[in-house]
């Protein structure tokens, strides 16, 4: 059993014990002047013992009938049976013990309706109180399970979204690598190293909740390098970084999506004057990321097509940075740009 569950059970046990100890102490103090400590303790302990037994028979065996099976008729039948047995035994015991402890011998030698009602109400009060404890604890446990399931669902959804990384990039790179090796190009070995770095990052880092921003930037630089080989450097790219990136952690594979999109829709080895402009600035509280690119003719960019798509990017942002991000898309006739702001604290 997990330590957290064990500690929770001990706290529940401590709550119950504390309640009965406090009740017993108060009752003994209340009758001490009238009966003295010893007789007062016995006068309190006897009915309290019946209340404890009745309360926990109800708590452990009868309440679950209502919570688990939702059978009200069966629940009330067992409740009435419990009250009847408990009250009859309690009154008979009090009639044999209490006349010697109190001056009011007549009350504890007869059975009147008022005494029965008083005893029923006394017992029922403790059943209701301990039952409310059970209800509140079960509600908290149910809420914790619901939150746990919700977190597991969000984690599964987040992992699924991460797994949507564009496979075409890998296929294209392997195809280009094959061409380079076949042609005996000198940079084939460099492509293998860069691709190895990218795959290592995707396999080992993408599963983490947060990674170092510097590692994400390294990954992006490797991606840029491979794309420049694929496209024969037929584009201009400016990548400006400002701020203490070594001290910042972010959700993995968040920034690469927009860079992929810029390459896919803004760069072609058959189109002149292609360009991409990337600006990344950070401070201790905020990250600002802007990616702009020239639009290639006959390409629609009303949505991110690469990898996740704009909807999936927003889902990832919502899961990783709820209420802590702003994403602005500027889609013009000749240019396309995004501006992403993440609150880091």
Which value, in Å, is the CA radius of gyration?
36 Å
- What is the helix content? 55-70%
Distance between the termini: 35 Å
- How many strand elements? 7
Explain the overall architecture:
The protein is of the alpha+beta class. The protein folds into two domains: 3-159, no CATH class; 163-343, Heat Shock Protein 90. 63% of the residues lie in helices and 13% in strands. It is built from nine helices and seven strands; from the N terminus they run ααααααβαββαββαββ. A five-stranded mixed β-sheet has the order 2-4-5-7-6, covered by helices on one side. The radius of gyration is 36 Å and the shape is rod-shaped. The protein starts with a helix and ends with a strand. The model is unreliable at 299-308 (pLDDT under 50).
Set down the secondary structure blueprint.
Elements: H1 3-35, H2 37-69, H3 72-97, H4 113-162, H5 167-183, H6 188-204, E1 211-212, H7 213-230, E2 236-242, E3 249-250, H8 256-266, E4 275-282, E5 286-294, H9 310-320, E6 325-331, E7 335-343
Parallel strand pairs: 2-4
Antiparallel strand pairs: 1-3, 4-5, 5-7, 6-7
Helix pairs in contact: 1-2, 2-3, 2-4, 3-4, 4-9, 5-6, 6-7
Give me a quick take on this structure.
The chain has 9 helices and 7 strands; from the N terminus they run ααααααβαββαββαββ.
What would the keywords be for this entry?
alpha+beta, 345 residues, two-stranded antiparallel sheet, 7 strands, rod-shaped, Heat Shock Protein 90
